[in-house]
Design brief:
By secondary structure, the chain is an all-alpha fold. Helix content is 77%, strand content 0%. The chain has 25 helices and no strands. GO terms for molecular function: mRNA binding; single-stranded RNA binding.
Length: 471
């Protein structure tokens, strides 16, 4: 019996997706490359079999982006939008994400707009466009986009819109508004199961100083997603800052076991071991991380800094070079590698080479304040005071300060809001008022249950302390 084309397409896409998961979890670089080649061939076959289906283009494009084949991904997305007649919002949003990644902000805006026109309920487009505007310092525009997204997706709420709006409110010092958005998000079905939402809430509460609430939120995040690498990393880093090194080490270890291909956890773990004086253990973890993800420039940068502090300058130079090679094109993060390398050459007495490296650092990221200040300090130490003053002036010119917009609010509580979005703010204010009234009549929901958990943890801690005094 002949299989229908539509069913054959679904089977090919499913098998390609499963193979990609196998490749991502493979420890062998050779096996991973082989399986990814098979995935690429399968997705190309899907595209040829049914050119009007946008999913094949999106999956293949993501594979190209993962492999840093950006030009091929751009051409593929353009081909896909043409083949689908411009009606696939997923394709437009994927193309917009890549354009933003490559710092083509104008193109990214147009593509996100096209995605929303194609499907006003496409959450990724609202969310991605808001993040783009926030990165550009357009906080009011970002707020408006996320609010419109929430309004458009009331029938199927998306937790990432609530999370981003809450985080923005927290960054603007509207803590109570942020809590309201976190509560609102965790009341939705998807939000309750979103580890990202719980983690972001915990990160905000860390700054407020309630340790028990932070642990309760992070615990809830791991309950809904036990493998979450982000929650493990955030929790471990926080425990380290609190001085609980053994607990941080346990979380790093568990996170790396559950996510063996995550270099960020290993890099953070290695940095902690170096801070504890365990240089050899840190080297072992850095080496492991570099094998897991050779393109992770932060691993090479941190490892190079370790060797630099240990006065192993030749080894550090090799590691910094690896970090520069690992950086994607036009990635401003590479400035961290150039700056660290420049400091090494400065200490080694190679002043001219240090200058050239610092030029590369500020060219890669003109907003990198540490690079400008290191350069100015070096020129000052060499007696070139006028040059140092010029560099500090350039730094002030490039510095981007986060300025809270006047009467900024996300719920309409910060003052009367006018313009086209006034009805949206008024509607959202009514939502919060209705939910607060319902909470007084209903049984405790998740946010209130967290308070119960925190109280129980405090009671257990007090009981253990009392038992210790009796003994």
């Amino acid at each position: 019996m002949r299989i229908p084309v539509c069913l054959a397409l679904r089977l090919l896409q499913y098998r390609a997706r499963q193979k990609r998961l196998v490749a991502n979890s493979s420890k062998s670089k050779h096996d991973r490359s082989r399986v990814l080649r098979e995935v690429e061939e399968a997705l190309k076959r899907c595209k040829e079999l049914f050119p009007e289906d946008g999913r094949s283009y999106v999956s293949l494009g993501k594979l190209y982006v993962q492999q840093r084949r950006y030009d091929e991904a751009l051409a593929l997305y353009e081909e896909g939008c043409t083949a689908t007649g411009g009606t696939n919002a997923h394709l437009w949003a994927a193309w917009a994400y890549l354009a933003a990644k490559l710092n083509n902000v104008g193109l990214a805006r147009k593509l996100y707009d096209a995605a929303i026109v194609a499907n006003p309920q496409h959450a990724a487009a609202w969310h991605g466009w808001g993040l783009l505007e926030k990165d550009q310092g357009n906080y009011l525009r970002a707020r408006d986009l996320w609010l419109k997204g929430i309004q458009s997706l009331r029938a199927n709420p998306n937790p990432y819109l609530y999370q981003s709006l809450a985080v923005l409110a927290a960054e603007m010092d509207c803590v109570e508004e942020a809590r309201k958005w976190f509560r609102e998000g965790t009341r939705t079905v998807k939000g309750r199961a979103s580890h990202a939402l719980w983690q972001a809430w915990a990160l905000m509460e860390q700054k407020q100083g309630d340790r028990d609430l932070v642990r309760a939120l992070l615990k809830r995040g791991l309950e809904v997603s036990p493998r979450s690498r982000y929650t493990h990393l955030s929790w471990a880093l926080w425990e380290k800052e609190e001085g609980n090194v053994e607990e941080a080490r346990r979380l790093f270890k568990r996170g790396s076991e559950l996510n063996p291909r995550d270099a960020a956890i290993l890099q953070a773990w290695a940095r902690m071991e170096e801070e504890q004086g365990e240089a050899e253990e840190a080297r072992r973890l850095f080496k492991r991380a570099s094998r897991v993800d050779p393109k992770h420039l932060y691993v090479w940068q941190a490892w190079g800094c370790l060797e630099y502090r240990q006065h192993n300058y030749d080894t550090a130079r090799e590691l910094f070079q690896q970090g520069i090679w690992a950086a994607p094109p036009r990635d401003p993060s590479v400035s961290l590698v150039f700056q660290a390398w420049a400091m090494l050459e400065r200490d080694a007495g190679n002043t001219q080479l240090a200058r050239e490296l610092l030029k590369c650092a500020v060219k890669a990221d003109p907003r990198s304040e540490p690079s400008w200040l290191v350069w100015a300090e070096m020129e000052e130490d060499l007696g070139f005071l006028e040059r140092a003053a010029e560099l500090r002036s350039f730094n002030m010119h490039e510095r981007v300060q986060v300025v809270k917009p006047t009467n900024f609010a996300t719920t309409g509580a910060g003052g009367k809001v006018g313009g086209l979005l006034a009805p949206v703010f008024q509607q959202i204010a009514r939502w919060f008022q209705r939910y607060e009234e319902e909470r007084e009549r209903q049984e405790p929901e998740l946010p209130e249950l967290l308070a119960v958990e925190v109280a129980a943890d405090r009671a257990r801690a007090a009981a253990r302390a009392g038992d210790g005094r009796q003994r």
